[in-house]
Amino acid sequence: MIYVKFIFIFKHKHSASLTHMKKAVLILIISVLMVNLTYGQTDWITYKIDNKLSIKLPAQPNAIDERTNKVMDKDNNVYLVAVIDLTEAAGIDSAQLAAYAPKPEFANGIKNGMLKKVPGLSLGDVKVDKWNGYYCYHIEGGNVEKKLKLFTYEIIIGSKMYGFTAMIHEDKNISSKDDFFNSLVLN
C-alpha cells in the first residue's frame, strides 16, 4: 500500500516536470532546425537597394549599368538586382502603373521584354501575385544552350519596378534562389 501511494505521489509531483521537459526538448529541436534552415544565408550580406527595399546577396554587387547590379556566388550562380523608374523610362506615373499592374497584358509585357533582350531564353507563364500589398510577378525559365535555370521576381512599388533574377546552373542546387528571394524586405 505504501508503494502504491509513493508511485501515485511521484507521478503526480513529477508529471508537470516531465511535461516541461518534453516542451524543452521540443524547443531545442526546433531551435536546431531553425539554425540549420538559416545557415545557407549566414555569410550573405544585406544590400540596401534604396530607401524602400533591401535583399541579401552572396557578396557586394557590381553595377553592370545604371539600373542593374550583379553578383556571383561560389558556384558561379548569378544574382541580378535591377530598378527601373517607369516614369523616367516609359513616361508612366505611379497612378497609371497602379492601373496597369494587375492586367495580364502588363505581366506578359514584362515577359516579352525579357525574351527580346536575352537570346536563347525560354520562359514559362507569368504568375501575378502580391507581396506586402504590392503587385509582383514570378517568371521561371532557362537557357538550354547555357544550361541555366532562370528565376525572376518583379515588384511594382510606386513608379518603380524592382527586378530580382537568379540564374542557377542546371547541375547546382536551386535552394540559393529561395534564400535570395525570401530575404527581400521593406526598409
Could you describe the 3D structure shown?
By secondary structure, this protein is α+β, with helices and mostly antiparallel strands. The chain has two domains: 1-40; 43-186, Mog1/PsbP, alpha/beta/alpha sandwich (Protein Transport Mog1p, Chain A, 3-Layer(aba) Sandwich). 38% of the residues lie in helices and 34% in strands. It has five helices and eleven strands, in the order H-E-E-E-E-E-H-H-H-E-E-E-E-E-H-E. A hairpin with a 4-residue loop joins strand 3 and strand 4 (68-72). The longest helix has 37 residues, at 2-38.
Q: Order of helices and strands, N to C? A: HEEEEEHHHEEEEEHE
CATH class of the largest domain: Alpha Beta
Mean pLDDT over the full residue set: 85
Give the strand tally: 11
CATH architecture of the largest domain: 3-Layer(aba) Sandwich
N- to C-terminal distance: 68 Å
User: Can you count the helices?
Assistant: 5
Largest sheet: 8 strands, antiparallel
Structural class, by secondary structure, is alpha+beta
Share of residues in helices: 25-40%
User: How many domains?
Assistant: 2
CATH topology of the largest domain: Protein Transport Mog1p, Chain A
Radius of gyration over all CA atoms, rounded: 24 Å
Task: Provide the CATH superfamily of the largest domain.
Answer: Mog1/PsbP, alpha/beta/alpha sandwich
